[in-house]
């Protein structure tokens, strides 16, 4: 569904990605793990067209999207829940969700998805008229995911959705990720919480200093000594 | 001040205040989206007035058509300014954009002196706007009534766009977070274009009404109203449309009432705005309606 080949990204003189290659199969949950600064966020940002690759290719559903505008990429049902949630705090919950469907025309299908989001996150339904900025971190994360779902994604990418949230809410988020995946949405997930993400992943990539350091099935990596020592803290 | 004079001045104050409000909205909307004080806004206002003037005097168009053409051309002019002076600096430090704005303002002023001439031009005022209306012992020129009415209509329309339409939502989203807006598929440059277009259109409407009220045009005529309306926007809380309206009215009210009460201060008329600015910045730096929503993590 998504294939990244030899992706290189520079920030001025910093060579942040040094030839990343990934493959995301339809219907799966794939995760990217790795230390801070390994290049996980940059990878997803480059896929969304927010960073310009200096080299490499990004192929999505057999189309080269390497230098496409973000708008076109969103239109092809690929979406990113950015690091730090980035909900529109000055807008209401409902308005945030409506903007998720900014490029969509079919009102009936938009309403259906709004209902779907409310079923997944009942709290958003209760808080529709509230300004997003007045909600807690966990609620804002749910809104960020809900807003992304309103684009009707085939592939949903999430950058550290559990960051800074209480353990109970983190558990909740992971359950919802699984649920969204079961409803047919492919997922590419970045997580600090390596254990929890490997447990739900079909396949995972370990990034280190802008390169793929290791890859394998989620459960295999979970039992791998090197991964255990470096990322699972056991 | 007797009661009749008071009402007379109140009408003047509301009229001037609504004119300030209209121009201040342009500053505040552009600031909200670009975090830029568009110093060329006063010149866009001046441009609109001159176009209306030439449309009526050189092209002999009826005033309705002339005003419409002036608004359209001013919108186009504003978009060209944005394209030439601001868009190339989209990823530059804020200071560079500000210097570009100040430079653009000077450039347009001086081009206007060359093209329009430095001598004052007399704006033709159609009878509709120049009729004296008598209410008891008070007599008021019709433009004094028409200005706030036009402003109210424009304001309702504008608030509808910003608060209720998807485009307005996109504008508010862009003003908060460019990148998150792009991730929703919003074309940020398009939203900036629309915002500049609206701001320039309002400047043109303001300029035309200014010409009807003070029918002597000069290439520098945008300077002082521009500064005052910028101040009005800051007083109200820059970035906030309702704030710009409040700031505009407040400024108009204080200016007119102070002069009416203390005619000796007439010479300092333009200085009140700056005093008010300093006072507001000392008391509430974010402006009257400015607020900082606490961002929770
Ligand atoms: N906007 C930026 N400007 C300069 N360097 C950056 C920028 N964003 C990220 N980097 C650098 O790129 C590298 C990868 O960062 P990032 O993709 O954010 O890593 P991760 O998400 O894995 O923590 C780091 O060395 C980081 O310092
Ligand atoms: Mg990151």
Structural topology:
The complex is a heterodimer of chains A (234) and B (297).
Chain A: E1 2-11, E2 14-24, E3 29-34, H1 40-47, E4 55-60, E5 63-64, H2 70-75, E6 78-81, H3 93-100, H4 107-120, H5 122-126, H6 137-149, E7 155-159, H7 167-182, E8 186-190, H8 194-200, E9 203-208, E10 211-217, H9 218-222, H10 225-232
Parallel strand pairs in A: 3-8, 3-9, 6-7, 7-8
Antiparallel strand pairs in A: 1-2, 1-4, 4-5, 9-10
Helix pairs in contact in A: 3-6
Chain B: H1 3-34, H2 41-57, H3 63-86, H4 94-116, E1 121-122, H5 127-130, E2 132-135, E3 138-141, H6 142-164, H7 166-176, H8 178-183, H9 188-213, E4 216-217, H10 223-236, H11 241-261, H12 271-283
Antiparallel strand pairs in B: 1-4, 2-3
Helix pairs in contact in B: 1-6, 1-9, 1-10, 1-11, 2-3, 2-4, 2-9, 2-10, 3-9, 6-7, 6-9, 7-9, 10-11, 10-12
The structure holds adenosine-5'-diphosphate and magnesium ion.
